[in-house]
Give the backbone structure.
Amino acid sequence: MNYDFDTIVERRGTNSLKYDASRAREKGEELLPMWVADMDFRTAPEILARLQQVVEHGIFGYSDGGEAYFESVRGWYKSQFGWEVKKEWLIKTPGVVYALAASVRAFTEEGDAVLLQQPVYYPFGQVIRENGRRVINNPLKLADGHYEIDFEDFEEKTIRERVKLFLLCNPHNPVGRVFSEPELRKMGEICKKHGVLVVSDEIHSDFVYPGRQHRVFASLSPAYEAMSVTCTAPSKTFNLAGLQVSNIFIPDEGMRGRFLHEMRKTGYSQVNRMGLAACQAAYEEGGPWLAALKEYLADNVAYVREFLRENLPEITLIEPEGTYLLWLDFRKLGLTEEEREELLFERAGLWLDSGVMFGDEGEGFERINIACPRKTLEQAMSRLAAAVGALRG
C-alpha cells in the first residue's frame, strides 16, 4: 500500500498545541512551528479504520485492554526488539512523563539524588525538582560532532551523591544518540554495583536509522530486568500522543507494587478507550505504514544535511542515530541566546525548541522536528537561510 506523507494537513483551529498555541503565547500566528514532538502526518489508515469502528459503536464507557491488547503489545516488542514481555509486567499510564514522575515518587524519598544526562528532554529535570528530589547531572560530552557518555563522571557522582534512581533516555532526546549495547551494559553495571534503579524512557525506540539498533535496556540481562522500569508508547511512533496511552513494563514484583501504589495515590485507573483501540491497531497492523514513514524521515534528514552543507555552513547538524528530532549547533553564528531567538522568531518566522530548555549544555543549540511533509521542511529551511543571509549582510 502506498502511504501519503506529502499532503499538508491543516492543523490550525483544531486545538493543536503545536499550531494553535502561537496566539495564546503571543508568538504570532504566522510562525511555522517545528517545536513540539508530534508529527504533521495523519496516522496509519489501519488505525483510523479501527477508531472509526469504536466511534460507530457509540459507547465510550470505562475500558481496559484485554488479552488481545496485551498480545498486540507483546508481539510488537518481540518482533521489533527480540524482547519477550509478560502480562503481569504491564501497567498502562496516560503518558511516559506521568510514569517518570510516578517512578521518582515511588522509588525515592524527598532529598534523594536522581541522575540524568543533559542536554535531555526537559520534563526529566522537572519531575525530579517538582517532587523535591535532587538533580544530579552526568553531562553527555560532544566530541567531533558525536555525543558520548562520561562513565567516570557517571560513577563518581553516583557514589558521591548516593544516587538512588537513574532516568535513562534512549534513543536520546534531543541529541539523537542510540546507545550501543556496550554503553548500556557499562551504565547498567555501575547502577547494579551501587544499587541504583533505572527508569528507561524508550518512547523513540521505533525511530532508529540504518546502521543502528535499539536494544531494550531490561532485555540485556536478568539483573537489569529486575532493577528497571521500561517506558514505552505508540504515541511518537504512530502520532497518537493526544490519545494518551503508554505501556510501562516493571518485571520486579516489589517495584511494580510500589509504582502501582503511587498511581493509586493520584486517583488514576483506566486509560481511555480510543487510546487502547489505537495502540492495538498500531501494533497489529501498523508495521508497513511505519516502514514507509521511516524511509520518508530518512529522506528528510538527508535533505536537511545537504541544505545546511550548501546554504548554511555556520549551522552544524549533529548526525542523528534515532528520533525525528534534529539537534542543530548554531554556535558558529556567535549569537547570544536572545539574539538567536530574535533571529528565529522575528526574522525567520520559525518556532524551534531552544537548546537551553534541555539544560545548560544545550546553550547555542536548537531542536527542530522534521516529521512533516517535505514542502513544510523546505519552507522552514528557506526561511532560516534567508534570515541568516540577512544577518551576514
Summary: The first strand starts at residue 32 and ends at 33. Residues 218 and 278 are 26 Å apart (CA to CA).
